[in-house]
């Protein structure tokens, strides 16, 4: 069986391994899924799994299996991505915590300085190994928590786009990937709200984190910080709204109490982005929004991971 | 093949049907999943699917298939439950919208009167058939949106527990189920915060909606509205925290910006509910919380679906 790819399927309390040719390779007796999977793994040479998963194939029903497969994961009890959406009520910012349930490696997207206590406590409660704290862009409405988090979580690195020119441990550009266990966030450059805006796509789960490029039924403003409505329109249509329609869309902000949308929904119902490019530019130029309250503190702080130099 | 149960599995752009005995029944050539599934359904008698799904078996990878299977669902593009979490910033209330993506039948849990515009617009955007608007209990902190929603959405019924003695179209009790498509919410009586508190369990998806019985790292107060700390402790431990540990837990409120938890997490980290019963009662009796601001308006309104009688 070495080299044969297989998929674990659970049905009627039996576990099957089905080969890439649809051949039934293994069928356990009726037993708890956990016992069945253990037996399955003992029966087959580890070579099969190395082969199956070296190509990054994910398992259908029973969640990710890797060489250090933990039974609690493959038993189906903790399948797939660990995902939490967190909110800062003051700036209406959404922070996202993503983790691989097997390796416990975690990524935090757009953490806010005022909520670092909560976020670090949650990472610890869940027994996660927080490796990356990413900013989708240099925020103007809140101070990032990445600097503070790095002080408290050993080994955690801050990430932001190279184009933003902000300080961080790692600078990301289009085409880069952020890996955590078998998962990866693909980095896309989506300028227009700012030059350095990135959107992150978790293809295997059908998720896109759009920062301020796309908001639910809206989009980020383009009247400061290198804002450019035409550029935003192009970014959004070529990189975000071109994704499969069922992809779930998670923005960095929402002001109406909605927590997510989908690419398809925005293609149908987003009153700004469904217009023509010229109409969109006209709308964006006539928004007449007030000056953002936090901007004079947030921008300089966010150029340095939100970390204040006591000597300044 | 009539009467044989099967599971649809997608692997390497082929679609397989695997029988309950692990036998490969069908394998398509490499083609788009949607085409493959169409071919699969044509090849097999519909009797197989009636048999497979009359027992409520859900499909592994490709989402739910029912008798009126729509190809967009079985293609894997819109698999499984449609679920949205919505927030009212004023009362920190979470409203939940659940729907079957095939029949479009939807349920709304704990809608808030101030957010009815948003909720009805979302139901319409998503092309849903909102049948039920449920209150987990008679809320003291906000006025329910169920009455207003019923005026705007023809055929939508309001639900609340019989024990609450509040007016509604349908009174639910422990053991009742709220069905929408192939999904069902099992109703559990979880008194203690109020006598009429219900928790709703969507077993097939591993979700529990706890109202105010369990909050993330906390629980509802027990100092008014028939509150009883001992009763709450018993309810929570026998009906909610006895669920599988991986079940996701969605409360009616959160004040720290968290959106969900799991049964396992609360069993480990909830500082109140992990105590002994006596310790818990002592904690709850010494909370010394301020009188809820909205209570004098909310309680009488929520006894009548939030609908104000102009003659009063």
From TrEMBL, chains A, B:
InterPro entries: Metallo-B-lactamas, Mito_Persulfide_Diox, POD-like_MBL-fold, RibonucZ/Hydroxyglut_hydro. It comes from Littorina saxatilis. One of its GO terms (molecular function) is sulfur dioxygenase activity. Its main location: mitochondrion. One of its GO terms (cellular component) is mitochondrion. Homodimer. Monomer. Interacts with TST. May interact with RELA. Keywords: Acetylation, Dioxygenase, Iron, Metal-binding, Mitochondrion, Oxidoreductase, Transit peptide. Its cofactor is Fe(2+). It holds the Pfam family Lactamase_B. It catalyses: S-sulfanylglutathione + O2 + H2O = sulfite + glutathione + 2 H(+). SUPFAM superfamilies: Metallo-hydrolase/oxidoreductase. Belongs to the metallo-beta-lactamase superfamily. Glyoxalase II family. This is Persulfide dioxygenase ETHE1, mitochondrial. It is an enzyme of class 1 (oxidoreductase). It is found in: Mitochondrion. The lineage of its organism: Eukaryota, Metazoa, Spiralia, Lophotrochozoa, Mollusca. Residues 92-253 form the Metallo-beta-lactamase domain. It comes from the Eukaryota.
